[in-house]
Write a structure and sequence with these properties.
Radius of gyration: 19 Å
CATH architecture: Up-down Bundle
CATH superfamily: F1F0 ATP synthase subunit C
Helix content: over 70%
Oligomer: single chain
Largest sheet: none
Distance between the termini: 21 Å
CATH topology: F1FO ATP Synthase
Structural class: mainly alpha
Length: 80
């Protein structure tokens, strides 16, 4: 009986960890999409600064992706 309760608690934690990982991934996708959209709008307004805008977009997207990966790993480590 005790093993069953331990397994049920672990499965509940795994479910919430999956929800947390999904929220982190969706949030990162939304953030990177907004960066891309805003970057394209700013390039359309000032085409001469395309190099600086592109570099800043890539840097911001990489930082967001790194934070999202960290959040997913933390959520998955909660299960262990």
């Amino acid at each position: 009986m005790e093993l069953l309760s331990i397994l049920l608690e672990a499965s509940a934690a795994a479910g919430w960890a999956g929800v947390g990982a999904g929220i982190a991934a969706v949030g990162a996708g939304i953030g990177i999409g907004r960066i891309g959209g805003s970057g394209l709008e700013s390039i359309a307004r000032q085409p001469e600064s395309v190099g600086d805008i592109r570099a800043n977009m890539i840097l911001a997207a990489a930082l967001i992706e790194g934070v999202a990966l960290f959040a997913v790993i933390v959520c998955l480590l909660v299960v262990l």
